[in-house]
């Protein structure tokens, strides 16, 4: 196991894979449920023109809560749970690519950057169709005038229809308007957003953790340092990639076809400030998300260690 650094990194070959995947599904589902309202708010803020609907993150939160209730903050959540598949694909790809790159380089930054970007490429290929549908559902309610597709009144009657009918209704509309390609609208924009985001996040996560370990007392639990490093890395990555995230959201929700044209129109209509739309919501959501992900993921790896290695890690 790698022990070059002050904070030890549990690698793929150290894990009991059966435990890793069992605990991983539960962890991913918990994280998704926790941060989903912030994701919905971020999407609505990014798609709105100027401040036509909400003036900011907290204004959006309270307006949605008053007008649509708690249910409004979880529009499209059931569809979004299918990203559990992409979540497992992401962590598997990340760990396997790290292992592969380690054959050519022991530099942790190189391994993290390549593995993070590769994992995001695989995950986004699964996630984009789910995002396209869930984002259309997110925009219903107060934001439905900003999207091409609206729910028919018949799709909102009956308890079972509220869960599955709305999704069927949106899927049918997307397919009728754009065919199968409609479910991959914004795929390039997603890759341009999330591959850099993931590639930046992992190296900065290890960098911040390492720097914190040099400042902290020697008996400080590594998990605390990692929990602090996660949000710092998330804020850094979110700031760097937010402009493309705004473009991605508009391409997917408004049905645009050109990333460059969407970018130009955004600059023309709202100036450079338009590229920061949703950034505060993104950082607010990414901070607790990063803490939960880091603590959950590092704990997951610790719990998934092969039995003979359990006592070898400073926790």
Automatic annotation (TrEMBL):
| Segments traversing the membrane | 20-39
Family indicated by similarity:
Belongs to the mitochondrial carrier (TC 2.A.29) family.
Provide the protein name: Solute carrier family 25 member 44b
Give the location in the cell: Membrane
Q: What is its main location?
A: membrane
Repeat positions for Solcar:
18-100, 107-211, 221-303
Q: Could you name the domain of life of the organism this protein comes from?
A: Eukaryota
Alphabetic keyword roster: Membrane, Transmembrane, Transmembrane helix, Transport
Q: What membrane topology is annotated for this entry?
A: Multi-pass membrane protein
The UniProt entry, under PROSITE patterns, shows: SOLCAR
Q: Which Gene3D superfamilies match?
A: Mitochondrial carrier domain (1.50.40.10)
**InterPro entries, per database record:** MCP_dom_sf (IPR023395), MCP_transmembrane (IPR018108), SLC25A44 (IPR042164)
